[in-house]
Each structure stands twice: as structure tokens, then as C-alpha cells.
Here is the input.
Amino acid sequence: MKHARFFALTLTASLAGFIAACSEPEAPVSTSTSAVDAMAENAAEQAADPQAMADAALATEIALGSAVKRLCSSVLVGNRTVDHVMANELNNPALSEADFNFDDDIVTGAMAVNGGTMTVRALYREHLGCTLLKDVSPISLRAQFDPELYPAKPDVAGEPWPIGNLVELPETVPGFDMQAVHAAVDQAFEDMEPDQNIDTRAVLVIHDGKIIAEQYAEPFSADMPQLGWSMTKTVTGALTGILGGDGLLHVDANANVPEWRNDGDERRSITLEHLLHMTSGMQYSEVYTAGSMSDVILMLYTTGDTAAFTIDKPLAHASGSTFYYNSGTSNIISRIQRQLFTSFQDYFNFPQERLFSKLGMTSAVMEPDASGTFVGSSYMYATPRDWAKFGLLHLQDGMWNGERILPEGWVDYTVTPAPAAERGQYGVQMWLNAGAADNPDNRPLPNLPANMYYLSGFEGQNILMFPDQDLIVMRMGVTTSGPRPVWTLAESVLAAMDGATESVSP
Here is the structure.
């Protein structure tokens, strides 16, 4: 296995702040005897409090789960060094005295909690990336999939992008002030606020099906896969379209969820379209702040079945009535897709056969959870150039190199606002900028065109499509505070396009 090695590391950051957010505030430090006695008494009381111990254990499980998953995927899928991941993503107070070990295809994290040691593991599988081992053995996961039976990837290395990966950046582009474009790209790597640490890792600008500007931050490169986070949802949507084109899924049918079929279960009314539109009405919390212990965090890091976690949720609103962004419903869609296949092998092969190979996306890796369902909400890696190919597929109405990949009409359906999205901000697993039906000016990004649509992921992963301009602007990185740079980047690129156009107009 690539990168097979043993690595041990002890972090020195403090866990106190993270656990305090989940239980009681940390007591002030004092060296007096009375203060020490008080602290010891308080610690004893907390140790005897089952709820405090449960909170501490859950906080530790989340911290370890997120760290192990990210470390495993970043190194073994993203081809990064352990040191770089530790210094840039995992150097935080949620990890204290944590040991991380690489041993062949298993990554382990261990941390002391409640007088014992908690251990979390992830398994790496070629073509499938990393999966947290929750209520499942490595043996059973390995038995799901034979990498030798995975579809052969197309040999397109020597072909020009977008068919392959050869890119020759142009010095001039008709209709563009390229000096302004390059200045905008450079600016996307600079902090927008003091001490922001923007951490932009890749920027691409694509026009007329060609990359016209591209830049990476060291040590990242065009050949390194990066995590798209919720950009994965749009891939899940596209796979739904392909299966729909095969006649295997129907968006207006009730969602194929056996747990909802009981008489009197209000969730029986949830359709596949409701899930695609984020209008299921299910009770769910999509919050990412440290210590929140929201549903999305619990789903990703404490359970091995991401779809089942959300399926168990009750209705909070009538299905179809309310838009609420819910990552769990994307994983329900993934499970509905999985149920159409007779084996895990066929299911795991499906995205490669019907989508990635068609586009020459040789780097794409969708990662499943321990139940064998793709985490269609969050976990796909691909190089920025391959992510850009997926965006270009939509800009080309689902056509690629003369072949229809997405069914006719699917892209139009994808970019049509969900009826419950009051500002026209969401379609089918795709973010929109359409505006309110009675007032298009009332839209999320008024400085950008109303017919722009885009993929969006945690920490600032974005692919913006501008159909009128035949333009794609994308940015990847890890921005954890302050504004995302992609909006300013897009405005500047559009201005450079408009300015150049005006300068050559008669």
C-alpha cells in the first residue's frame, strides 16, 4: 500500500477548551493550597458525574474521529505529508496528548479520557479512501471490495485538458484583461482580514472550456487531490440524475426508505425530490462550531451509518414546506442509490464507470462510511483540475466530448430553485443565486449574476459557473474565519472580462 509506514506523534495542545464548551467552564489556575484542594474536590465531583463523563467521552470521540479521518485521507488519498497535515489542520486545542499511528492500511488515534484511553481507527482502501471503523471490523470492510475489480481508469495523461491533464496557460485571452485576472488570482491567496490565515491552496479560472489561469500554494500542486467537502453533494446529485436516466430512480416518488413505511409515519410523504431540494422537513442541526455537537458532527464522527443516523430523525416541518440545509439527507440519497445494486463492488464501481472515467477524472475518490454507503454529503477527493471538469460538465449541459453523460434536462432541473428556497438559493444539490421569485434582486450574492450556480464546501471549497460568460471560477483551501475569497475573486475576474470587452468595443 502506498505510504505504508508507522508514525507516532504526541501533541501538546490543550483539550480543556473544547471539553469546557461541552460541560462546565474551566476553573482559574492558582498555586494556593486551598485552591489546589478545591480543584481536586471539583475534579472528584466531575468524575462522579455520569453526564460530565459522558460529555467528555463524546467530545473526545469527535475530536479523535475528525482527526483520524482527516489525517488518513489527507496523507493516503491527498498525498500530503503527516507533518503538513498536523501543522495546518490538526494543530488545535481539541487534541491533547493524542497519539496517531500509521500501520499499513490502518490509522489509529488514541487519547486519555475519564481515566482510560479512547482509540479511534480508520481503514484505507485503494480507490475508496479512508473509512472510520465504527461498529465494523477491517476484515468485513476489506471483504466488500476487491480493488482488482475496479474499472480501469482512462489513460488521458498526455491529452490536453479537459479531456486529459495537459495545461498550457495562455498569455493573452480575447475579451480578458489577463493582467487583471492574474492580479485577482494572486489576491485570492492573501488574507482579507488581519491574521485571517486565508490558506488558499488552489485557484483556477476556466473560459470557453480552457484553463486560462491557475495557481497553487506550496506544497499543493495540480496533481494533488483535495477534499471537496459539500461539493460532494453535487456529485451525489449527478449520480442521481444518471440513475434516473436509467429509469431506476424517479424524483417524484416517495423516498425508498423502509424505516418510513409504517402506517402513521409522517415521513412516508418525503419524496426523493424533497431530499434533493433540502426540503425534507426533518429535524436536524447543521452547525460546525467546535463543541456544538450538532447532528452533522455526530453523524460524521460518531456513527458508522451516516444515512441511518438521519433516517431516525423526526419531522420538524411538513415535507416540502421548508428549506433547511441538511447534510444527512444527502447520505440518505446515497443509501437509496446503494440499494439499487446487488453488491458493494458494483455500487463502488458505479461512479467511476458512469461519471469519472467518462470525464477523465482519474484522481476522483468517493469515500464510504462503515455501512458501505458513500458519504455523499462530504467525502470526495479529486485534483482541482478534475473538480473543474465536473463543473464544466454542468456548464456543457451534461455533455462531454460528444457524449451525453447527464440526462437531457437534468442540468436545467438542477439549477431550478426549490419551491421552498425563498431567495432562490438552492436547486438540486446545487447552490443558486436566482433570487426571490417575486424579486430577483433579493438574492444571496447581488453583485454576481442571477443565473450563476455553484458548488460549495466547508472551509471555502467553491466552483462557480457563469453560463452567460462561459466561465468557471474555482477556489480550494482551508479558510476557518473571515470572508471567503472566492466572491471577490469572481467579481474581479468578471470585471477583468467586462473591462477587456469594453476596451476593444468599437
Observations:
- The chain has 15 helices and 15 strands.
- Confidence is low (pLDDT under 50) at residues 1-36, 502-506.
- The chain has three domains: 16-146, 161-224+383-506, 232-358.
- The two ends are 61 Å apart (CA to CA).
